[in-house]
Design a protein that fits this description.
Number of strands: 5
Helix content: 40-55%
Radius of gyration: 18 Å
CATH class of the domain at 3-150: Alpha Beta
Order of helices and strands: EHEEHEHEHHHHH
CATH topology of the domain at 3-150: Alpha-Beta Plaits
Structural class: alpha+beta
CATH superfamily of the domain at 3-150: Nucleotide cyclase, GGDEF domain
Number of helices: 8
Largest sheet: 5 strands, mixed
Amino acid sequence: MPLHYILMGDIIGSSEYDAQRLRDDFMSVVSSCNIRLGKNIISPYTVTLGDEFQGIATSLDTIINSIFFMEEISLRRSLAYKVRYVAVLGHIDTTINRMKAHTMMGDGLTKARRILNDKRRGLPRFRFDLPDSFMTKQLNRLFLVLDGITNRWSIGDGILILDMLANTNNAEVGSIHGKNRTQIWKRRKNLLIEEYRVLKDALIELTQQNRTNT
């Protein structure tokens, strides 16, 4: 029986937000991810409750790209909430639902749900559980660092941050945001923009190499 890459997530502290607006925003983010990465998603990411989603991807690098897409589009849309993610490689015993991630069962889904439901204080926001213990350890470590970087960012800086990621020319970014080159250089340093970029590239390359070797 083949193993499948399962991604689940839920919104941290969802009760603190307006329920209808939160659900609409969350569903829009998840839907946008399905559109962008659809050819690499077996069972579309589906909001199963107002504040949770699950789905099945073709590969580990698709999982990583999905996480980055959802994180960055939330930043672009100035969404205040944070999502807790769990990625598992495991069995699904029932037929894969290719229309939406419902009505499926298996120990992979059970494990992912158990990890997601463990909400003890201090647990990482990004958690991976794969048969490859080395890859599991590296991903959990690197995403812990990434979360530390993004915790420095504020909602109001979202567009500036994404523009700095997309363009390394400080003068050009400054002209868009009414700042000079030195001001953008300082923001880039303080917000660890290049460190984020390097870490993102490393995570994508690491998981792409994993697909090549399997």
